[in-house]
């Protein structure tokens, strides 16, 4: 029984890190702008809040859908994870950083919403599979906040050459988790 909970925590932790790779990648680019540490802290918190809200809404909707369509929901959830993972990997190669939105006011909300949209989709899949909601959204919020801060800080120090690779890694993790759901 304890192994089941440890496995679920480990899986959710990997998933939260994979979902946070978008935020990390975007924050690397934003970090190259001249941002004060206070602004960096605010950006990380706002993105973390969105990474809590979006999957929570998705989980609630996923549970509703799961009750309606039964076992098909697990297959749909696994396929959804694989699809999002593939999309993340493809977007890593076609990303255009020349139109970077400034992380201030409405621009910050747009950035936070954009990088957390995949969390909504993942939430749908998780809700269909009956995940522990509180654990999932806490891990999503913490990991996205921490990786955003890390990306913003590293963006100040490094010149963007690892952004693409972090999205590829995140996408491959999501694909692996989707395959695990389908097989399991």
TrEMBL record:
GO terms for molecular function: manganese ion transmembrane transporter activity. It is a multi-pass membrane protein. GO terms for cellular component: plasma membrane. It is found in: Cell membrane. The chain crosses the membrane at residues 6-28, 40-61, 73-94, 106-128, 134-153. Its main location: membrane. The keyword Transport applies. It comes from the Bacteria. Keywords: Cell membrane, Ion transport, Manganese, Membrane, Transmembrane, Transmembrane helix, Transport. Belongs to the MntP (TC 9.B.29) family. Probably functions as a manganese efflux pump. This is Putative manganese efflux pump MntP. The gene is mntP.
């Amino acid at each position: 029984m304890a192994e089941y909970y440890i496995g679920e925590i480990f899986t959710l932790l990997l998933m939260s890190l994979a979902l946070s790779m978008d935020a990390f990648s975007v924050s690397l680019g934003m970090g190259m702008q001249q941002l004060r540490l206070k602004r960096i802290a605010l950006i990380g918190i706002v993105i973390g809040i969105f990474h809590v809200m979006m999957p929570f809404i998705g989980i609630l909707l996923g549970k509703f859908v799961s009750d309606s369509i039964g076992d098909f929901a697990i297959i749909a959830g696994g396929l959804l994870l694989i699809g999002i993972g593939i999309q993340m990997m493809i977007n890593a190669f076609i990303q255009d950083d020349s139109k970077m939105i400034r992380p201030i006011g409405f621009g910050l909300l747009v950035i936070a919403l954009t990088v957390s949209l995949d969390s909504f989709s993942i939430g749908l899949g998780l809700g269909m599979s009956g995940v522990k909601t509180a654990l999932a959204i806490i891990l999503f919020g913490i990991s996205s906040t921490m990786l955003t801060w890390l990306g913003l800080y590293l963006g100040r120090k490094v010149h963007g050459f690892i952004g693409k690779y972090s999205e590829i890694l995140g996408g491959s993790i999501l694909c692996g988790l989707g395959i695990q759901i389908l097989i399991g």
